[in-house]
Give the backbone structure.
Amino acid sequence: MKKLLVLSVLFVSTLSYGQRQMAEALKTDDVALLNQNINESNKNNCLEIKGSEYNLLSIAIKIDSKKVFKALISNHSVDLDKVCEDKTPLMYAIKYGREDMVSELLSAGANLDKKSRKGKTAIYYAEKYDQKYILKILNGFNR
């Protein structure tokens, strides 16, 4: 636990001011702070966090930042199918069991058939993580 805390502090200390502000926006689900720090050049970047890559949308999904998640889709037109760490945001939403976010991503135009670098699909992840209700959502979605 102590090592994890030191790594987290080290990660945050190596970020630029804007990146720290973005991390704070995600952590506190603060859309105003997000809006002050997001731009065309950073909105779809893959960021390394503790050895794994995530984009802003995937981080919002992972930490359940609902307001930031909605703002990224509605106001900032982020890439819904951006692959970081071999998963799209839809695949992350499935992994973490975020049923509402899965539905919102699909409604916003996320590609249900997009494959990861390893050839895996959203349905594969729903089965892998035993997300039965999400699997029903995916199977019922009109492509």
